[in-house]
Amino acid sequence: MAPIELAKALFSNIPNRITSIRIISLPVLWLIWALRLQHLLAVGLIICFISDLIDGLLARKLGMTTAIGAKLDSFADHVLFPSTICWLLVDKRSAFAGHELVLELALAMYVVTISLGLLKRRQFGGAHLLSSKIMGFGGYLFLIGIYLFSFNLFLFYFAVGSLAYFCVETSVFCFFPRLLDNKMKCMIIGFIGKDIAPKFMEKLI
Q: What percent of the chain has pLDDT over 90?
């Protein structure tokens, strides 16, 4: 996304303004991290999590869904993710003792997947697939948990598992998009049948 296009999109409507919270807050989060205010960093991540949850829901409710809004949402997610990884590797590296290989494989899968999306479809991975929302949910829960409390093995593997599913579904989306259900953009629903998805799930994408 070009800088001028991004600047115009940030404040073009209410849902985009909510999405922009995750982009604009990034320098502030880096400052909070540098000051070692870990609980305040967790609060910032909670705000980003809420932004990620409600921007798409509000866009659909208000009839303000746009292609630029979808791109902005994906851009916000994928500029925040590398920062959180840096913070974890500096602050919490010892917490991953015994799980380093799993973490390294997960990060390698993510880099390959994002690169694949950029090369194949000129976008950040599988933008607005159901798996991207699941990955975001798992990632935020783990991050907030580790900064507010401590390392949680269940949340760690839930985050890794959701990331792995995102990587698989994105790869399928890049090469075989017809295998995904058109409405939900979900590989599993595409395989089974698109009409099985509950109505509330349709609002997540």
A: 42
Buried b (16+ CB within 10 A) or exposed e, 135-164: bbbbbbbbbbbbbeeebeeebbebbbebbb
Tokens of 82: 């590398």
Q: For residue 180, how far is the Cα from the chain centroid?
A: 19
Domain boundaries, the chain: 1-72, 92-205
Measured CA to CA, the distance from residue 89 to residue 127 in angstroms comes to: 26
Residue 27 DSSP label: H
39-66 pLDDT, tens digit each = 999 999 999 999 998 988 888 888 888 7
Distance CA 101, CA 16 (A): 37
